[in-house]
Amino acid sequence: MDDLTTTTLVLLALAALTAGFVDAVVGGGGLVQLPALLLGLPGAAPVEILATNKLASICGTTVSSATYYRRVRPDPRTFGPLMALAFVGSMLGALVASHIPSSVFDPLVLVVLVVVGTYVVLTPTLGERTELRFSGHRHTAAAMATGLAIGFYDGALGPGTGSFFVFTLVGLLGYSFLEGSAKARLANWATNLAALCIFVPQGAVLWKVGLLMGAANLLGGYVGARTAVRRGSRFVRVFFIVVVGAFVLRIGGELLGWWG
């Protein structure tokens, strides 16, 4: 990958900057970053694309997680088990990543995103404030199940993981969009770390590209987290709908052959 032009590197960095911002607010930065990597590195293997994406993403999720933790103070009794099971699920997903074609996931993910987006649009009060639907061990069990399932998806493929975490934490567990986004960032950091624990020993990470994009992703993550905290749950909700809509158009367009 030493033959990349300056223009390609700049475009990859801009994509990572945008992805970091989107990820920090509602997740879904892979919608921007993965296609950019596929276009910018046409000769790379799929596992190298996934691994390099994880390296760039963990830079952004590190700074956005720290920002959310300082300003929102999410409850560790929820995000602790959520992160632990997300880590395990992501490692399992990364182990099978090179054996699962994206075509298996795309139709299912499209249906889920359409349902999620429609539900959020038709439920305007959803996520305005925290009203937990479970308590005690049931709440912890729901958080752990969420972490394991979405963590596996993130390790195996990844795009939209943060958005799935946000929606599940808001729609299933009952958090506000701001609190849900804070916990989603922490869980997403754990899934990125777990995937890298598998990809790095395999030699799959393209370090120069990944670190460059990581620096840009970090900046985007910092700005995105501060913006979400300052603007609150209403802003996060609107941004969530926009990102999910864009994701539906992208995956739906690919399945219909509108673009490559």
From TrEMBL:
> One Pfam annotation, family name?
TauE
Q: What is its membrane topology?
A: Multi-pass membrane protein
Answer whether the UniProt record assigns the keyword Transmembrane helix to this protein: yes
Major site of localization recorded for this protein: membrane
Q: Where in the cell is it found?
A: Cell membrane
Q: Which UniProt keywords apply?
A: Cell membrane, Membrane, Transmembrane, Transmembrane helix, Transport
Q: Where are the transmembrane segments?
A: 81-101, 107-127, 148-173, 193-223, 235-259
Which protein family is it in? Belongs to the 4-toluene sulfonate uptake permease (TSUP) (TC 2.A.102) family.
Quote the protein name from its UniProt record: Probable membrane transporter protein
